[in-house]
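Suppose you are handed only these lines of text.
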Amino acid sequence: MKLAIRYHSGTGNSARAAALIGGQFSALAWSVDVREIRRDLPDACDGVLDADLLLLAFPALGFSPSATMVAWLRGIPRKTGGEAAIICCTGGDYAKGSSIGGWGGDAPYLAARLLRKRGWVVTALGEASYPVNWIQAMNPPEQSYAREIIKRGDAEASAFAAGLAGGSSANPRESLARRVSGAVSVLFRLAGRRFFSTLFVADATCTSCGWCARSCPAGAITMKKGLPRWSLRCDSCNRCVNLCPTGSIQSSSVLIGLHLVAAIILAIAAFAVPVPESFPGYARAIARILLIALSPVLQFSLVAPLLGALAVVNPFRRVFSRSFMKDFRRYRAPGFRP
Ligand SMILES: Cc1cc2nc3c(=O)[nH]c(=O)nc-3n(C[C@H](O)[C@H](O)[C@H](O)COP(=O)(O)O)c2cc1C
Ligand code: SF4
Ligand code: SF4
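From them, the structure of the protein bound to iron/sulfur cluster can be written out as follows.
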């Protein structure tokens, strides 16, 4: 029997869950083929059709699989009746002596819907809670707590694998809250992940090693004049910021402020720009909606590239490197070497 595992991972939790589940199936004499899904590795689709079971492992990012994962799932080979299982790694924390589980929202369910569109049958779907790695939003848990949360994630992944191997189908019903979180997940894939990438700055400690660009699973970083530049292809997986060998990548507090100011100016302009009185009422309404819709487009196509270009010019770089997360811990799953 053959198990194909395809995983997407920012900081190694999903890679860990994938390896753990693969190990359990190997012990049962299954042949296990594990591959990473990255934009620059097209062969992740190879080998999925002749497997008896396909397992997908990936993190929840804004209640969604990453945009890279969604694009991959849209192009996965069609297999009517092909069996698939999904394990979504979520972000847990630790407080008052116990671990707090994460919540993947629509993430595993969206992946299941995309698989079904391609003819696959999703027999099992579950979540495993590992340490939260969203360093742009919060300080990851300290090491001793992270170890406890990892134990929990491993136990959940292991129980999932045992159920899967035993033929039981863990496929909880999609709740209303999960469905509602689907709206947030659309916004995150469309705009949120791109916005977060516009805040990255490599500070003065950057050694120009280029590791971040080589290791980005979305191919979102290019090196320009020895410094990383982030593009809007970023999935916001937080790999680069957590794993940079010198901890040089910051999420800029100054850029947050500048983006906010630009967004307010663009929003005011969208409401203030006069629409000709001679237009009929419905045409005026449509023109106003178009103007409002134009402001985020301008924010991403003009403001973000301009600030991104300034972020690699030395005096600006120093100012832009000011960051609320400078002293935050960096998180990497134990042993993960992408
Ligand atoms: C941008 C971003 C958004 C996230 N959104 C969620 C979320 O919606 N729910 C959740 O439980 N964890 C969330 N997390 C935490 C990760 O899903 C969690 O840490 C996961 O285990 C990381 O897996 P990885 O190491 O394979 O990337 C988010 C992390 C990032 C970076
Ligand atoms: S930001 Fe970090 S990983 Fe990227 S080039 Fe600089 S030192 Fe290397
Ligand atoms: S740029 Fe960084 S956060 Fe964005 S996809 Fe690449 S590694 Fe992940």
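What can we learn from it? The first helix runs from residue 13 to 27. The radius of gyration is 22 Å.
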